[in-house]
Amino acid sequence: MSRQVETLEQQLEARDPDVRLMVQVRADVPGAFETLVDRYQNRLVGILFHLVGSRDEAEDLCQEVFLRIYKARKGYRPKAKFATWLFTIANNLALNHLRGKGRNPSPAGGGATGSQSLSPMARLEGREGTPSAQMRQAELSDLVREALEVLNEDQKMAVLLNKFEEMSYAEIAAIMGRSPAAIKSLLARARNQLRERLEPYLQTGHRGPAGLA
Question: N or C terminus: which one in the chain shows less Cβ crowding within 10 Å?
Fold first, then answer.
């Protein structure tokens, strides 16, 4: 390993605990891979679910992502945050999957029992314990899933990474193979489309997810 590569790895390890964990996976430290899966599995399945529209397919794709990561562990040399690498793999797998289906995924939430628990929107649910509050959050979650259906795959991925993974334009650009300026433009168009779709609901006095519309 060159000194420059070694220095970059040390810097990334110091900044990103998940890079440190992946380095442990590379070294076959017992329990490291399981911990990594626990940290990302639900978040990854939630995003994949919104992209492909099927709980089962999202879980299968998530399993494939982690399988690829495990198989590649011995050659792992961090060049960016671990999440950037993971979601790059996930994005490529999801797009290939959708192309294989003719870009005709099932509507998100359509008949997928328990799919709500897989959604990033689950973070917003259950903050209030009353049945009426939970019903409002469930309604909002369904509404946002339906609103996301007006977006194409690239727009969905950019919105989900920006709002639910709190990634910067530069991080999303690295994942999607675009420039930060292109991602900024992509997100602006997506927000306009979401705002139009959610406007009737927002006018009733309910508030949507912060920053989503």
Answer: N
